[in-house]
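Predict the 3D structure for this chain.
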Amino acid sequence: MTGPPRDAVTGSWPLPDIHEDGDTIVAPATPPGRGGVGVVRISGPASRHIAGAIIGAVPAPRRASFARFLDAEGEAIDAGIAILFAGPASFTGEDVLELQGHGGPAVIDRLVRRAIELGARLARPGEFSERAFLNDKIDLAQAEAVADLIAAGSAQAARAAMRSLEGEFSGEVRELIEELTGLRIYVEAAIDFPDEDVEFLGSPEVAGRMADIDARFARIGRAAGQGRLLRDGLAVVIAGRPNAGKSSLLNALAGYDAAIVTPIPGTTRDVLRERIHIDGLPVHVIDTAGLRETEDLVEGEGVRRARGEIARADLILYVIDAVLPPAAEELSAALAELPAGVPVLQVWNKADLVTGTVPEGDCPLPEEGSGLALLGVSATTGAGLDGLRQRIKQHAGYEQAGEGAWSARSRHVDALRRAADHVARAKRRLEQRSAFELVAEELRLGQRALGEITGEVTSDDLLGRIFADFCIGK
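Done. Predicted structure below.
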């Protein structure tokens, strides 16, 4: 181990002026609780001072060293591995010290407290990743991919997050920005020659550039849309009259008895939530109380909550008892009460007990692939459930994630949409051969929207919202 000499008078290791050079932060990097290994991470200018005080020397960079971790009186807190990552060649771009010891809560707490005594402060959620972003080690999309990788609920989501973390998504966005920049330069050069700009901007080269940009927007939009689905999933609400088999359908989709099922109408009085995966697509299935007028205060509150979930759904599975179906007028009235902007799939349950046709105008039970509006299933036997899963995927526009999907968030998809809108307006003005200054301005605004994805254009408020969702210690 090497490092700066101790102070000749006090015998302590030199402490940098952290108020001038920036704060040093500390946090556990492993989850709370007991475990075989616990990691404490320290980042900032005081990292070497803290290393010298806790382990008696500054480790050689990127070399694992076994050491005893000492408190202020020289008593051993723990023994383990110390590794120093010297800035700027570290995750945060600063000096980073990792102390890898035993995973007991008391041990981790004492190490963190000792680092705070030596000049560090407790890190905010996501502050290590935030410093990596601010020090140009990663861009904002990659920083978000760190959190998405940690939170990934399926192998497909983890692969998509890893591709974003490695920079695939950011690289595609930057290439699109470069294409917009090239076209914008072309437009602005034409503005300088007003006698020739109409012919200049109507040339095949400009049309070809615009076509390339449109194709790239479409490709990135598809991949980002799939990534958003992998990350956020789909909210599917099971609704319908009491005793239609809603809770049985939830249990059948979940694969176990998540909800209580009885023949008594009104058994489900609160919202029940289960998370399932359909070929990697996260689906938040929400079972709700049966929709009916009631004077029971508890059931009435359940119905109110059910309608609230229905209004927020991405898809409603409206379950109908195929054995005792409602009259056509009653069914039409019930469907008319559902929110107009939410797609509805009619699920005729207990289809195994119906011979020949589904009552309701003698509409036959639909076969696989017959459309989105109507489907016959049996929550008891499982008949039709594979078809239901396929319909849910079709509604979401989900394709089983391949090599092209990246981890993406709603803000990424929104930024892509806004950028595409600006470019579409620029294209229309080009076709009209007028207001070429506005064409250049629309292209600039499109570039700015894309810059929000990688963080080239951002605000402190946005950074605060993004990193607040991270784990402490990451």
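The longest strand covers residues 76-85.
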